[in-house]
Amino acid sequence: TQNYRITLLPGDGIGPEIMAVAVDVLKVAGKKFDIQFEFQEALIGGAAIDATGEPLPSATLDTCRNSDAVLLAAIGGYKWDSLPSNLRPEAGLLGLRAGLGLFANLRPAKILPQLIDASTLKREVVEGVDIMVVRELTGGIYFGKPKGIFATETGEKRGVNTMVYTESEIDRIGRVAFEAARKRSGKLCSVDKANVLEVSQLWRDRITQLSQEYPDIELSHLYVDNAAMQLVRAPKQFDTIVTGNLFGDILSDAAAMLTGSIGMLPSASLGAEGPGVFEPVHGSAPDIAGQDKANPLAQVLSAAMMLRYGLNEPKAADSIEQAVLQVLEQGDRTGDIISPGKNLLGCRAMGNALIVA
Amino acid sequence: TQNYRITLLPGDGIGPEIMAVAVDVLKVAGKKFDIQFEFQEALIGGAAIDATGEPLPSATLDTCRNSDAVLLAAIGGYKWDSLPSNLRPEAGLLGLRAGLGLFANLRPAKILPQLIDASTLKREVVEGVDIMVVRELTGGIYFGKPKGIFATETGEKRGVNTMVYTESEIDRIGRVAFEAARKRSGKLCSVDKANVLEVSQLWRDRITQLSQEYPDIELSHLYVDNAAMQLVRAPKQFDTIVTGNLFGDILSDAAAMLTGSIGMLPSASLGAEGPGVFEPVHGSAPDIAGQDKANPLAQVLSAAMMLRYGLNEPKAADSIEQAVLQVLEQGDRTGDIISPGKNLLGCRAMGNALIVA
Ligand SMILES: CC(C)[C@H](C(=O)O)[C@@H](O)C(=O)O
Ligand SMILES: CC(C)[C@H](C(=O)O)[C@@H](O)C(=O)O
């Protein structure tokens, strides 16, 4: 029997509901593959603010460090929107990424044949789309200094943030991306703004250098504005994309929306060592929280990514992904992905369907 | 008779071909509305590099300053891609923006009924889309300091750029956007990343403050990642968008691509006083340069924007826009927008069609 200690961070809004489903699904997969999970729960985001005054209590970070992987649901909500930014739920998420050194964020955007009509793009444009965005997650303008709001000599305020990358930061995320591309179709597109930004020039130089170590990978470069355009124009041209923190934030969301069903998309955040964090791309959806309406599939697929990338249990990951495909195949849908002729299920019922699938 | 001195910057690639068409169309409109244009041509981009070694010779900037408006075609090409960045064509464009103080960039993305099938999005999603992106153009990370590639203590390189906005910079672009929204549907969406960036927090604060002066305008705020998503999910929700230089670069291109025909989209760059610059959104398309294949309509519509926003000649602007709609209505198309049953025209033939329209 393999034993894993998993930290659960249900967070806010629909978080607890979708997390409950993911835990059930993990238990079933565990039985099937002789894996024992020890779950420990901790506070983050609004839930942590309400209980402790802080979005990421140090106890939470300790619990996470002391585990094999972290499964996160979603954070945030209107309730905490007016707090100062360092006390808001998002600060907890940024602190978790920094605290665990999670520099590599993997965001797949894959069109599922069963849900292709949910896309706002024409079928022929998105059919077969399968993109992996590799986003740098602990550097760039999210963390660069100086940052803040300062007074100028004339007395007016001046907001400042700094986009910074060092060569070693670029190399480390570059390697993750080249390796990811190698496991996929062998095509990597690096996205920057090297025609304007020096930080992007360094990025492009290093990625180009690095490509000499990966002669089997076909590397291309795009400017971020063009990449945003090409995602809309012809998304099938992309396989693996590597980019910095801010560009990755924007492009991975645009890529996600190509599928039309953001309630289906998981993500993985990995460090050099220590536990990774696995979470859905969607938010905490406070408007439908507690109503058993949420789509738990992105959370369940995040659990599958945890098995694959965090625990190296690909068979258990496969079986969960298969279960998701099967419930979709048999026509089960939550409200966000319903279409005529399909079965409308609540969050829990979808969980039950997965368990028997 | 009204007299205007217009600087023409044909630039590179297809630039000279599409500029020739726009000039012909302007002359026709001038005759009709008793407007006399005095055209003066100057060098920019690759053409300027080849002739003078610099992408923006000071003579060009002088000529521009000494005119009522500047009509720019397109710059850049593979030929100059390996030059150091301060000597590349793009540096000429950035220098022109800074040199003329063009802080406000207006980028309309409007679906034309005749070309709706060119969109990669479903008809019902894009029908009626009419978005105006107001992008700040002389600040933000494009110009902020410090910037450069520096050596760290450990000897590795570190790329740095700085995203900066002062209150007065935000106010000034904010006013342009509120005024633009007032002339349109009265809805303004401000885009930032205030959940992470301090510079965005200042941006959001000032725009919110400013909205008190525009009680008739309905203001909303979106994070840039969500905005990229919403443009793909439901673009009709947007009317006027205001955002910083980098986010505007990305989002205006994504919005442009919703139309499916970037060969149709003009833009205007305006300062507090002095001449504005009017140019198509598309690039210099070096692969089809000199083959009489280019679509001149974005250039012609840029000339119309010049009449409307630069010279305050709305009637002449209307007549040019009407001519464009009419040639589309009668089925005339260049190669980039051709579809079955339509008439394929070259660049010059399209120009002739516009003149008789
Ligand atoms: C909530 C926010 C801080 C976060 C980010 O910008 O990274 C989110 O948008 C994401 O992409 O995970
Ligand atoms: C060519 C480049 C410097 C420019 C920019 O980034 O502003 C272009 O992308 C644009 O949007 O006009």
Structure commentary:
2 copies of one chain form a homodimer. The first copy, chain A, has 2 domains: 199 residues, Isopropylmalate Dehydrogenase; 129 residues, Isopropylmalate Dehydrogenase (3-Layer(aba) Sandwich), CATH 3.40.718. Chain A has 12 helices and 14 strands. In chain A, a hairpin with a 5-residue loop joins strand 11 and strand 12. Chain A is an alpha/beta fold and 357 residues long. In chain A, the strands form 3 sheets. A 10-stranded mixed β-sheet of chain A has the order 2-1-3-12-11-4-5-10-8-9, with helices on both faces. In chain A, strands 6-7 form a two-stranded antiparallel ribbon. In chain A, strands 13-14 form a two-stranded parallel sheet. The longest helix of chain A has 19 residues. In chain A, 40% of the residues lie in helices and 23% in strands. Chains A and B meet through strand 7, helix 7, helix 8 and helix 9 of A and strand 7, helix 7, helix 8 and helix 9 of B. Strand 7 of chain A pairs antiparallel with strand 7 of chain B. The complex binds 3-isopropylmalic acid (2 copies). One 3-isopropylmalic acid (IPM) sits at the interface of chains B and A.
CATH T-level topology of the largest domain in chain A: Isopropylmalate Dehydrogenase
Low-confidence stretches of chain A: none
Q: What is the strand tally of chain A?
A: 14
* Order of helix and strand elements from N to C terminus of chain A: EHEHHEHEHEEEHEHEHEHEEHHEEH
Main location (chains A, B): cytoplasm
Domain Isopropylmalate dehydrogenase-like (chains A, B): 5-354
Binding site for substrate (chains A, B): 97, 107, 135, 225
Protein name (chains A, B): 3-isopropylmalate dehydrogenase
